[in-house]
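Q: Structure tokens for this one, please.
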Amino acid sequence: MQFCTPDMSTPMTAAGDIIYDVLCELAYIQPRREAPRSAFLETLAAESEAFKIVITNQPQGSIPTSLWASSYFIFVDSL
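A: Here is the predicted structure, written as tokens:
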């Protein structure tokens, strides 16, 4: 498992090795008010070998097309 946000990234490793770091980051994460960080999403799209679960507050139309094929999206506004 690997966990990435625009501000944090863990190495690819066993989930048990990083789960507490991931849970701590998730406990404090907040939606960003600034412009979408498309560079982060473009970087994710370039990693075609991994399956990604993306939690985002961005509108569906702002997601790079190349990311849809290797990802599952959870849109915050639909929760």
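A few notes: The first strand starts at residue 52 and ends at 56. The mean pLDDT is 85.
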